[in-house]
Amino acid sequence: MLLDTHGRVATDLRVSLTDRCNLRCTYCMPEEGLQWLAKPELLTDDEIVRLIGTAVTLLGVTEVRFTGGEPLLRRGLASIVERCAALAPRPRMSLTTNGIGLRRTAAALRDAGLDRVNVSLDTLRPEVFKTLTRRDRHQDVLDGLLAAREAGLTPVKVNTVLMPGLNDDEAPDLLAWAVEHSYELRFIEQMPLDAQHGWKREGMITAGDILESLRTRFTLTPEQDERRGSAPAERWIVDGGPHRVGVIGSVTRPFCHACDRTRLTADGQVRNCLFAREETDLRGALRSGASDEELAAIWRQAMWGKKAGSGLDDPSFLQPDRPMSAIGG
Predict the structure, then answer these.
(1) Which domain holds residue 251?
(2) Helix 77-85 to helix 45-58 angle, to the nearest 10 degrees?
(3) Which of 23, 131, 185, 310 could disulfide-link to 275, CB 3.0 to 4.6 Å?
(4) Over the stretch 193-207, which tens digit does the pLDDT of each residue have?
């Protein structure tokens, strides 16, 4: 198992397949983009599958989420999914994407073995989308969401970040739209993971703000679900059901005590926390001829030292050097 000193066991693996992205969201990276990882630094398809296999067969991982950057930019994605679906035991597999490429890939990913998707969409207004992402691709995301639903990659979850002065008035409209299209909407507090290090707690749209806005139009009943466990989203039943909405309060309502995640970056580094400032190199060991058992031992040691919490409430908190696009969601 991937056990830490606080008794938590990591069973959910987030795998970043690339640090590249075809959007330039203001809360993630600058308009000119970032210096991408060089190809020799990236794990190959074979290396990714081997490390996932090690996690699943030797370390008890049961859930694999493919992230980026934008994972649909990884040419070998469908093959990676197919090979991981053949593992025994088979992990449940999902994908976090900006949705731009889903219209052409959703069916192939389903056929390869992908179970479901999370799609990032912060606004229903094309002009606001263009301001937030610096790209005019709003309709492509809507088309991708529809393709994912029609392909059976369900439940299709939509991840939304509200930003002051841009889309902070859209929460009720977004929920009404999600209910109409049978998407599961999840609001996520903006986190200090932008490349510009411009995040400020002051003025941030909090989970409390989001719920207050939603309740101007909807009746929200807390979901009584003992199975929530380590799931980051607090969920509410909308107007008596069956639809639900989630709010992930990573900053103001942290869930570190139940965290079950481990992360693998596109260049083969283990991160035991989204906000960690330290990483453990698996790529070097793998390319030096380490066995699966030796890789598993390194991974266990990396997770053993996981801190009790993210440290966001500590005045001495320092933002990780890597931005979200290079860590993976």
Answers:
(1) 2-327
(2) 30
(3) 310
(4) 555 556 566 778 999
